[in-house]
Design a protein that fits this description.
heterodimer; A: 115 residues; mainly alpha; 79% helix; 0% strand; elongated; B: 151 residues; rod-shaped
């Protein structure tokens, strides 16, 4: 599970950062200064990163057996500026940490899965 | 003999109940949202394709991106349904303590109670087999539709 969490976190931070650059630097430049170099390049980059983010977030959501609502929130967070950071913290507090504690508690059990 | 004749219809009803949750109003809503969003994503992809053909180079990326999202939505929907039929095993996450574990189907348990009085009478072989069959079905469908709490 740790690997899935790490992949998700890395992608959440990268995607979130790129999206902030896109929305708070690229788009103002495009609108105000008519310079769309940043908006178009970073926009394409965010598009590609978001696909990877989708996959990592979805795999983690399945691992944690999240209900449908939180799963969709996690997936959608990659398209809304700043939300990835908020959701990442929320998922950690509400789901990842409890799951880790449960895993540690159940480690003695022979059926517990590794990773 | 009579028990074998009564068997098939009941046997057909039991597995049918396992997919019934898919036509519950909440699930119909999800199916509809799914169809609308996939159609929307494909339409957006087509719109980007037309823009790309008009000379907007950036649109080429989105022309391929939207169909990818549409495919992802279909996979997401299909896997969600599949998980309802066979919830992933093992407790990496919280809960569990199955409320229905051990409880047989109502008719199955009731029948046992009725027969407790005449235990001495050797049980009908067909009936025993049929009860075992019902117990097996119950085991198979136990957690269907429960994972996401949408039933």
């Amino acid at each position: 599970m740790d690997a899935a969490v790490r992949r998700y976190r890395v992608m959440a931070y990268i995607t979130g950062t790129v999206l902030i650059v896109l929305c708070f630097v690229g788009i103002p430049l495009q609108v105000a200064a008519g310079n769309d170099v940043i908006a178009s390049d970073v926009g394409t980059l965010h598009g590609i990163l978001y696909i990877i983010y989708l996959v990592t977030a979805y795999l983690l959501a399945r691992r944690l057996r999240l209900p449908l609502g939180p799963t969709i929130l996690m997936l959608a967070a990659g398209t809304i500026p700043v939300l990835t950071f908020v959701v990442e913290r929320w998922v950690t507090r509400k789901y990842i940490n409890p799951a880790r504690q449960g895993q540690q508690a159940g480690q003695a059990a022979p059926t517990a899965r590794a990773g | 003999m009579s028990s074998t004749e009564a068997g098939p219809p009941a046997a057909e009803r039991a597995p049918a109940a396992s997919w019934r949750f898919l036509v519950a109003p909440r699930w119909l809503g999800w199916h509809l949202a799914m169809v609308v969003s996939v159609a929307g994503m494909l339409a957006l992809g087509y719109w980007q394709l037309r823009r790309a053909e008009e000379g907007n180079a950036l649109s080429w990326a989105y022309t391929f991106e939207w169909p990818v999202f549409a495919v992802f939505a279909v996979v997401f929907w299909a896997k969600t349904i599949r998980d309802e039929f066979s919830p992933p095993q093992a407790g990496l996450a919280c809960d569990e303590a199955d409320p229905v574990a051990g409880a047989g189907p109502v008719g199955y348990a009731g029948r046992d109670d009725d027969q407790e009085a005449d235990q001495a009478v050797p049980e009908d072989e067909d009936l025993t087999a049929y009860n075992a069959y019902l117990a097996r079905l119950q085991e198979q469908v136990k957690n269907h539709g429960r994972w996401h709490g949408l039933r």
